[in-house]
Amino acid sequence: MIDSFLIMCYNMCLLRVFILLLIMKIDEGVDAMKEKMKNLVITNYCSTDKRKYRFIHEVKEDPLIRDFVSPNIEQYLNDSEGVSRLKVGPAYIIADQRKLVGFIRLATLNLNGVLNLHYGVHPSFRKQHYGTKILVETGSYLFQSMPDVKKIELYIHERNTGSLGCASNACFQFDREFYDKDGLSLTKVYSRSL
């Protein structure tokens, strides 16, 4: 009788531990990564968070993001799910308080420490200076938190006048320009160094 009681207690303890671990894992998934900058926060995508799910679907449908940033932004944002710290490759959501205002992607980082940064602002938050805020805060944060980053470059299509203005306002300097493969489209490169 005592043996069966002890086994039952042991099983109940195991069940409680399992439930606690499961709850911790679920909570971790919702906001596993929050990198606080000055005012904005970098966070990863989480498919169980309805706000982030809605954000990703609104952003991927935006023609400006598809044309000027990437037609694959949904995949890049999905790639950040479960990521616990910033790394090159995935895209991350930028939040201001509880508002999901934009995203960044650390596209490539070469051996010389030059980071190709992609960014975008959610259509509902454009013309509110979020593009400039994202570039200023992200730039400062990346230089402080990623010692391998020595220079940040933005590749901006000549017709993307909003991003050209944001780059200048965020103290990125015009570096160079080149024609795309089609020979018709001009891309301007802006950079900011450590």
- How many helices? The count is 6
**Span of the ends, CA to CA:** 71 Å
Helix content: 40-55%
The arrangement of helices and strands along the chain is HEEHHHEEEHEHEE
Structural class based on helices, strands and sheet pairing: alpha+beta
Features:
194 residues, alpha+beta, eight-stranded mixed sheet, 6 helices, 27% strand
List the helices and strands and how they pair.
Blueprint (H helix, E strand, L loop, with lengths): L1 H29 L3 E3 L4 E3 L6 H12 L1 H6 L4 H6 L12 E6 L2 E11 L4 E8 L8 H16 L5 E7 L3 H9 L3 E7 L6 E8 L1
Parallel strand pairs: 5-6
Antiparallel strand pairs: 1-2, 2-3, 3-4, 4-5, 6-8, 7-8
Question: What do these coordinates show?
Answer:
It is a single chain. It is elongated, with a radius of gyration of 21 Å. A hairpin with a 2-residue loop joins strand 3 (91-96) and strand 4 (99-109). It has helices at 2-30, 50-61, 63-68, 73-78, 130-145, 161-169, and strands spanning 34-36, 41-43, 91-96, 99-109, 114-121, 151-157, 173-179, 186-193. An eight-stranded mixed sheet has the order 1-2-3-4-5-6-8-7, sandwiched between helices. The termini are far apart. With 194 residues, it is α+β, with helices and mostly antiparallel strands.
Concise summary:
The protein is an alpha+beta fold.
